[in-house]
């Protein structure tokens, strides 16, 4: 079961990472950016870049069974 959740977390982290790098206009990412822009302002894409990296790192730990 760790393989499924670890893979799902990695996909979400990769989505945030790629969307933040390209500053994507996709509907889902635009919703996240609109909600976070109040707190993070012009640095919202950097925030999601870091969140993507953290999610990918944690998902690899979860995938390998070292966390969770």
Task: Please explain how this structure is put together.
This protein is mainly alpha-helical and 68 residues long. The protein has one domain. The protein has helices at residues 2-22, 27-40, 44-63. Helix 1 (2-22) runs antiparallel to helix 3. The longest helix is centred in the first third of the chain and has 21 residues, at 2-22. The mean pLDDT is 93.
Short description, anyone?
It is built from three helices and no strands. The chain is mainly α and 68 residues long.
Shape: elongated
What's the mean pLDDT score? 93
The count of domains is 1
Helix content bin? over 70%
Per DSSP E runs of 2 or more residues, the count of β-strands stands at 0
* β-strand amount: under 5%
Key features?
about 70 residues; about 80% helix; 3 helices; mainly alpha; about 0% strand
Give the topology.
Elements: H1 2-22, H2 27-40, H3 44-63
Helix pairs in contact: 1-3, 2-3
């Amino acid at each position: 079961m760790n393989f499924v959740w670890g893979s799902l977390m990695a996909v979400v982290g990769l989505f945030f990472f790629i969307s933040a790098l390209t500053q994507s206009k996709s509907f889902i990412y635009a919703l996240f950016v609109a909600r976070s822009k109040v707190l993070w302002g012009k640095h919202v894409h950097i925030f999601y870049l870091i969140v993507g990296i953290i999610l990918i790192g944690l998902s690899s730990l979860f995938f390998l069974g070292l966390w969770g």
